[in-house]
Amino acid sequence: MPRFLFFIELADARKKKRRRHYTLEQELARLWEKMRRHEIAKEDRAKLVTEALQKMKGKISEIVGSHISSRVLQTCVKHCSQAERDTVFEELSPHFLNLAYNAYAVHLVKKMLDNASKKQLAGFISTLHGHVAPLLRHMVGSVVVEHAYELANAAQKQELLLELYSTELQLFKDLVSLKESRLLDVMSKLKLQKGSVLRHMTSVIQPILEKGIVDHSILHRVLLEYFSIADKSSVTDIIQQLSSPLIVRMIGTRDGAKIGILCVKYGNAKERKKIIKGLKGHVDKTAYHQYGCMVLVCILSVVDDTKLITKEIIRGFQSVLKELVLDKNGRRPLLQLLHPNSSRYFSPDDLATLSLSIPSLSPKDQSGESSLTETIKVSLGDEESKEDMAVDEVNKDKTSVDDSDLAESGKKDPLVRRQELLIKSGLADSLLDVCIESVEELLRSNFGKEILYEVATGGSDGIMLPTLDDKINSLHNAVASLAAMPKPADSQEEHVLENFHSSRTIRKLILDCPNFASTLWEKAFKGKSELWAHGHSCKIVSAFLESPDLKVQKLVKKELQPLIDRGILKNPKHKEQESQ
């Protein structure tokens, strides 16, 4: 057969194949329109799904690259029986790698993984062996690897990670157990050369960063491990690359937030400026995020350029201040300014994260290396040791947080930095306005009450005093006026002196803030103390007697002593003796 006739026949065959696929797609589209309706009966949908799968049998790998066929298959996989799902998985198994690079097929692959059995997921992860790095360099393929990584157990996660550390580990991955979860441990066990591992990891990481594919938690894990062994120049290069709007896309994961914190701590002034400017327009979303808020906490704690922070971050806070105050995560940056590094508001794990350091950039701080590598070990799934380790980190960092390196924390005095960010920026003034306007809502709130307490006491080190004395007194009066309201006879809503959250906050304010205690007594309790000396509110009345301030004790003694004599209230001295 002449050569040109061969190509003509080949072209005709391809046209016929495309025509058949087009006809099949039209049939599938009609079935899809019926099966995806909400009002359709379960039995009718099952019949349509079975019919569609029968039409696609043997051709799934060919047609799944089409956006129509891919959507039909996703619906079928969602609603079909387990046996039908297993059949589809088996047919696609030899083609998963190719499908992972297809923009339409990738959605089906993710759906298949969501519904895969443990055995099927393990088989899929095995097919990725030797292809993890190339897939991570691909915009679509990286999504598949990340999805598999999120679904994988600890051993499977380690299997995917080891491939990115060294070429040797691709061959000897079975020699590594879960005990060697950290890269340093793996290198020590297998006697791997540090230079070889660094070169391989650099060749993996650099192309990914150059393409801007930085959203995935598997990359964040690899970067943390890289920081734990890399030399100073290598780490500095990575920090320079990440100090941009890219960092905003990374801080949505636990490890990504740690990378963000390390970039803020070890970046120079120019790099820190790029990071802060990159947060413009994303400040509120970042503050609400479980991990992202800790990056903002770090920025407020270590960056010296308070004018830039005020412009880009504090102004962002002020536009949604009440929402932040009432939000579990949003309040954290505010609490860091009001009461820095407080174990009352930050968990041991949070404080350990804030005190992370990079070994090659902190040669004098031997605890720094431990901090980074131990944190890596925790987040790989060693849950039993997590709490103890985090507590150890806090104990270690009591000195490092207070006497932090200039390279990490800047040259400005922490108290001066707080004053500029909290007082000069007008943030404290805005916080007081919010607390006064929404005093009842904040007192009854699980999270808002903490901000109100710190503002009412003037913040740690009395940072808001005496500048804002008048407004703080107005807040004290607002709380006292609320407490002075008559006790409702028949109401579903509890009085603030009996509500779970507000009663505890008011009690704590009495013990820690004598000015508030005096105002509250004069406005709400004087002459009415016996009314509140019963039930839940009696703890508040007792707080006046337990106050460490002698003036407060003297103020209330005349009225409360008869209640003690009658046995309505307990003498605080007797309480101390009982506890001893």
Automatic annotation (TrEMBL):
Assigned GO CC terms: nucleolus
The Pumilio repeat ranges on this chain: 55-90, 91-126, 127-163
Domain PUM-HD: 27-379
Entry keyword annotation includes Repeat: yes
Keywords: Repeat, RNA-binding, Translation regulation
Positions of region (Disordered): 362-411
PANTHER family listed in its UniProt record: PUMILIO HOMOLOG 3
Entry protein name: PUM-HD domain-containing protein
Keyword set includes Repeat: yes
GO MF terms, alphabetically ordered: mRNA binding
InterPro entries, A to Z: ARM-like, ARM-type_fold, CPL_dom, PUM-HD, PUM3, Pumilio_RNA-bd_rpt
